[in-house]
Write a structure and sequence with these properties.
The protein is mostly helical and about 100 residues long. Helix content is about 55%, strand content about 0%. The protein is built from three helices and no strands. α1 packs antiparallel against α2 (about 45-60). The longest helix is centred in the last third of the chain and has 24 residues, at about 70-95.
Amino acid sequence: MAGFGHGTRGYPRSRGRMWHREGPDRATLGIIGTVCAVAGFFALGIVLGPVAVVCGWLAMGRSWAGASRSVPALVAVALGAVDTLLALVALAGAAAWGHGVL
Protein backbone atom coordinates (compact mmCIF):
# COMPACT_ATOMS: atom_id res chain seq x y z
CA MET A 1 0.00 0.00 0.00
CA ALA A 2 2.98 2.27 0.15
CA GLY A 3 3.60 2.48 -3.59
CA PHE A 4 2.87 5.23 -6.13
CA GLY A 5 3.23 8.20 -3.84
CA HIS A 6 1.25 6.78 -0.97
CA GLY A 7 3.29 6.86 2.22
CA THR A 8 2.96 4.50 5.11
CA ARG A 9 1.36 7.16 7.26
CA GLY A 10 -2.11 5.68 6.98
CA TYR A 11 -0.88 2.11 7.22
CA PRO A 12 1.55 1.83 10.12
CA ARG A 13 1.48 -1.97 10.04
CA SER A 14 2.69 -2.15 6.47
CA ARG A 15 6.32 -1.52 7.44
CA GLY A 16 6.29 -3.42 10.70
CA ARG A 17 6.29 -0.44 13.02
CA MET A 18 3.54 -1.87 15.15
CA TRP A 19 3.28 -5.43 16.34
CA HIS A 20 1.05 -7.44 18.57
CA ARG A 21 2.48 -7.53 22.07
CA GLU A 22 1.64 -10.08 24.68
CA GLY A 23 3.13 -10.65 28.09
CA PRO A 24 5.04 -8.36 30.44
CA ASP A 25 7.43 -5.69 29.22
CA ARG A 26 11.17 -5.65 29.90
CA ALA A 27 11.04 -3.53 33.03
CA THR A 28 8.46 -5.82 34.60
CA LEU A 29 10.52 -8.90 33.71
CA GLY A 30 13.58 -7.35 35.35
CA ILE A 31 11.68 -6.67 38.56
CA ILE A 32 10.12 -10.16 38.55
CA GLY A 33 13.57 -11.68 38.06
CA THR A 34 15.04 -9.67 40.90
CA VAL A 35 12.23 -10.68 43.25
CA CYS A 36 12.65 -14.34 42.26
CA ALA A 37 16.41 -14.13 42.85
CA VAL A 38 16.05 -12.62 46.31
CA ALA A 39 13.29 -15.06 47.27
CA GLY A 40 15.41 -17.94 45.98
CA PHE A 41 17.97 -17.34 48.73
CA PHE A 42 15.33 -18.22 51.30
CA ALA A 43 13.24 -20.94 49.64
CA LEU A 44 13.28 -23.06 46.46
CA GLY A 45 16.57 -21.71 45.18
CA ILE A 46 16.93 -24.53 42.67
CA VAL A 47 13.72 -23.35 40.97
CA LEU A 48 13.72 -19.60 41.53
CA GLY A 49 17.39 -19.14 40.57
CA PRO A 50 16.98 -20.29 36.96
CA VAL A 51 13.66 -18.41 36.73
CA ALA A 52 15.48 -15.23 37.79
CA VAL A 53 18.23 -15.81 35.21
CA VAL A 54 15.69 -16.34 32.42
CA CYS A 55 13.62 -13.30 33.41
CA GLY A 56 16.73 -11.14 33.60
CA TRP A 57 17.97 -12.39 30.23
CA LEU A 58 14.59 -11.67 28.63
CA ALA A 59 14.56 -8.24 30.27
CA MET A 60 17.93 -7.50 28.65
CA GLY A 61 16.39 -8.18 25.27
CA ARG A 62 17.77 -11.73 24.88
CA SER A 63 21.22 -10.34 24.27
CA TRP A 64 24.30 -10.19 26.46
CA ALA A 65 25.79 -7.26 24.52
CA GLY A 66 24.36 -3.80 24.14
CA ALA A 67 23.79 -0.64 26.10
CA SER A 68 20.10 -1.30 26.80
CA ARG A 69 20.76 -3.22 30.00
CA SER A 70 18.70 -2.25 32.99
CA VAL A 71 19.87 -2.55 36.57
CA PRO A 72 17.09 -4.94 37.71
CA ALA A 73 17.86 -7.23 34.77
CA LEU A 74 21.55 -7.39 35.65
CA VAL A 75 20.77 -7.95 39.32
CA ALA A 76 18.33 -10.73 38.40
CA VAL A 77 20.88 -12.52 36.22
CA ALA A 78 23.73 -12.19 38.73
CA LEU A 79 21.75 -13.13 41.84
CA GLY A 80 19.91 -15.87 39.97
CA ALA A 81 23.20 -17.44 38.90
CA VAL A 82 24.60 -17.26 42.44
CA ASP A 83 21.36 -18.62 43.83
CA THR A 84 21.41 -21.56 41.39
CA LEU A 85 25.04 -22.37 42.20
CA LEU A 86 24.40 -22.29 45.95
CA ALA A 87 21.38 -24.55 45.56
CA LEU A 88 23.40 -27.03 43.49
CA VAL A 89 26.21 -27.03 46.07
CA ALA A 90 23.66 -27.63 48.84
CA LEU A 91 22.13 -30.51 46.90
CA ALA A 92 25.55 -32.02 46.25
CA GLY A 93 26.45 -31.69 49.93
CA ALA A 94 23.20 -33.35 50.97
CA ALA A 95 23.93 -36.27 48.68
CA ALA A 96 27.48 -36.80 49.88
CA TRP A 97 28.93 -40.31 50.08
CA GLY A 98 28.15 -42.22 53.24
CA HIS A 99 24.90 -40.50 54.17
CA GLY A 100 21.96 -42.83 54.20
CA VAL A 101 24.03 -45.96 53.70
CA LEU A 102 23.81 -48.47 56.55
